[in-house]
Amino acid sequence: MKTASHPTVQWFNKHGADRVAPEKIEAEWLRRLARECGADDAGLIEIGRPALDDQRADILTFFPPTKTLLSFVCRMNREPIRSPARSASNLEFHYVGDKVNEVAHKIVDALEQRAIGAINPAMGFPMEQSRFPGKIWVVSHKPVAIAAGLGHMGIHRNVIHPRFGNFVLLGTVLLDIEADAYDQPISYNPCLECKLCVAACPVGAIASDGHFNFSACYTHNYREFMGGFTDWVEHVADSKNARDYRKKVSDAESASMWQSLSFGANYKAAYCMAVCPAGEDVIVRYLGDKKGFLQDVVSPLQKKTETVYALPGSDAEAHVTVRFPHKTIKRVNNGLRPRSVDAFLQGIPLVFQRKRSKGLSATYHFTLTGAEERKSTIVIRDQAVEVKAGHEGRADLRITADSATWLGFLAKERSLLWALLRGKIRLKGNPKLLLAFGKCFPS
């Protein structure tokens, strides 16, 4: 009689049918289980890994007994992602995203049958939207994958797998058991630093020096997600009638929003991923004919006539005007309104527009009072921003504000003049520096 090779049978043959979990799980068996469940590659890290220092508390809050993290990748087909028809790319993103969640579900199901506790946070959405616009994800899949040896981050902020390139989606499973071995990061970065992602990005979110403009990427690529959806809802609410609404939102935009609501939110670009030639399975075409690769893959995305969404007065708006004059700019709000002082301070580096800060060299001391008391220092110098706890150095402008009033001002729910006249916001120093500060953080 032929012996069954299914992992479930193998486990019961080794450990017995009493469903008592082993003290440790075999790492190679767990990697094999991931592949048999549909993953294309997998790796393991321990909960104590330094790479998890900034998210360990969140992970343990979500699943307190976590001891091991299983990271895995599912490969995407390249041509749909490269297509200027974003319906093809979005179909691939959603299909493989669903596959990642299915693979994770199968892994958790198999482990549960072996009396091993495990849980799979979502690949992407759904997330903990009650915390928006703060940290809405449970596990940051990218640093977990990098620590588990599944690739390194490219300058476009996508994980590049050594074989599949950045044409992968990531999943993570948390286990309540230790493994007998763990993986380490790969010794090299597959990123070629070819800068094709820099050339293709319609909003200039990726700079050649490695700087990443989160706000630009989020505002355009995620136009039909979260904050962009909120902005659309506010257009509906503010419209006097159907004609007024159509002045603000085109029929195509309304249809696209309907499509996102019906079939899954549409990414507007992800061109950085589309043009990336890194990875053993991907690079052959690029090295064999670089000119042809540029003509066939990069140029169609650059030349595509499309609407690009940008914050008024942002670096992205200026980039489109200069670099892609054939694309139509639509000035929008991205809905990133901090609802707490901590969210305001944590978000500063993410929404900073460094080109708008050119020529500005100033130190700001913030003293926020009332419901949320904080003292902080924000330094803008050499087109970079730094946020520090407490007051450090000599301030060029001191801002003392009631925290609720300041957050209302940022959300455009309170008037700055009203707040100044009533002493809710007080300035000491050159008030023009507050205007200069605002230009660095358009909304």
Describe this structure in words.
Helices cover 40% and strands 16% of the residues. With 443 residues, the protein is an alpha+beta fold. It has three domains: 7-179, NADH Oxidase (3-Layer(aba) Sandwich); 196-331, no CATH class; 341-439, Nonspecific Lipid-transfer Protein, Chain A (2-Layer Sandwich), CATH 3.30.1050. A five-stranded mixed beta sheet has the order 13-12-11-14-15. A hairpin with a 2-residue loop joins strand 12 and strand 13. The chain is globular. The model has no long low-confidence stretch (mean pLDDT 93).
Q: Please tally the β strands and state the result.
A: 15
Q: Which strand-content bin applies to the residues?
A: 15-25%
CATH topology of the largest domain: NADH Oxidase
- Which regions contain 5 or more consecutive residues with pLDDT less than 50? none
Major sheet: arrangement of strands = 13-12-11-14-15
Query: Number of helix segments?
Result: 19
CATH architecture of the largest domain: 3-Layer(aba) Sandwich
